[in-house]
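Table S2 (text version). Query chain:
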Amino acid sequence: MGPGHRVTKRVRAEIVVASTIPQSQPVMPSQEFVQGVSKFEIDLNLPHVRRCVNNIMGGRYHDMRHWMYDHYLDYPSFEEALKHSYPGICPDDWAWLCHNIYNSASFQTQSTKNKANRAKLPYVHCGGSRPFVNYLEDDMVDGEIELFRVTHFSKTKGWVNEVAHLNHDQMVEIQQQQQIDPQEAKPLTQREICIEVLGKKTCYFQGLGNRPRPTSNHGVDTSEADRLHGIMSSQQSRLDSQDVELQEQKKTIDQLESRLSQFEGMMQQFFSSQGSAFRFTDSATQGLLISMMSLEYLELVSILNWSSLDLFGYCWCMSDL
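Corresponding structure-token output:
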């Protein structure tokens, strides 16, 4: 087992702890943590659950690597950084990270590209670490336009820059214009106004955080796909159940037909042996007929829901054959 594998396992463990314990509370004892986690049932076979877990774990892993890289950059040289491992990471694992990741040519190339891309951003938000979607879910803001204002405006420092200020004013103007002159048959929602002003990318709405995500002409709405998958699974289960019931019914019908055929054969044999002297109305004959019937045929009559009158009517018809 190489040091890189140990780093991955350790980072994953720290990710789990960091993603499940609120930042405002002290770290709970491990035993209590295990007991708390055991109360939840996470079925990773469900697509939306697996996607959510992967996103959370990926985000925590991204944060952990960023923190360790910031620690790496705190030192003036590679040699100095190598001597001071990140807190909680053993020296061997830290050395592996420094040599194979942070000092590698591919990592340095990607880092340079990322810096150039970040420099192209017109502004950055000031919403802190709280996910943007929490503002909407907790009713802290009234729609996406106010969400943009809350995450790009500070009471003490003002707007993050003039571009963000102008974008917000433009969105408010469109919203107010719709209220004053509602000529549109279907006015734009706040989210649609944000998209019109801020634009959107294939993976997220610009200015509204990583969630919610837009649908694409080249992709499928995952929530709708999950819903349809659930409906298809339910219908397939129902069809399978009905197929089993049909097989059981066919088996029962085959058994009834076999028993009825045996019953008819027995009746024909009985009436043939009696000849012309047989009188079905004779009470003694009726008693003899009933006594000769086995429990199996009485069960057949019960299954067919015949009354005693039906039985004797059937026998009367058989006597004319």
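Notes on Table S2: The first helix runs from residue 3 to 20. The chain has 14 helices and two strands.
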